[in-house]
Amino acid sequence: MITAEILKKRKEHADSTFVHEDMSYVLVYRNPKSWENARSYARLLGGELATIPNDIVNTLCAEQLIARKLTTAWIGLTDQNEERNFSWVSGAPLTYTHWLRREPNNRARKPADSRGEDHVVLHSNYGWNDHNGYEDAGHYFPFFVEYSNI
Ligand SMILES: [Ca+2]
Ligand SMILES: [Ca+2]
């Protein structure tokens, strides 16, 4: 159910929302978050971290980053349930990917990243990279949220 609270929240992000087919995509960029907290925030918008189903949406999202001189944003892709088995939090099938070369590599960079990398970012160069989005790792980025318009 779409509450007045959700509509108010969506309005706050109108400047960084675009519509493609039946979905709205929001780049939430003012308060960067861990992937875990970004996902919680997506729910406040009555949505989910975004699924990128094809090259069109990938390009539209990357262009949002470029327009704001941002380089990195979380999307709704994770292998936290099973290493190397990436899935969309929306439940959509993973039929399209745009990994950068040598990604996903699950590479731990710091002791805080000992669990490896289980959450995916989209970069402004259009490519994807797995990164550590657990809250205690402290990697905070803007993020893309999607919600349905039907
Ligand atoms: Ca992983
Ligand atoms: Ca990586």
* Poorly predicted segments: none
Biggest pleated-sheet summary: 4 strands, antiparallel
How many helices in DSSP terms?
Answer: 3
Principal-axes geometry comes out as: globular
Task: Report strand order across the widest sheet.
Answer: 1-2-8-3
Second-tier CATH architecture:
Roll
What is the first-to-last residue Cα distance?
12 Å
Number of strands: 8
As a percent range, the share of strand residues is: 25-35%
CATH overall fold name? Mannose-Binding Protein A, Chain A
Average of the residue pLDDT scores: 95
Quickly describe the structure.
The protein has 150 residues and is of the alpha+beta class. The protein contains 3 helices and 8 strands, in the order αββαβαβββββ. β1 (17-20) and β2 form a beta hairpin.
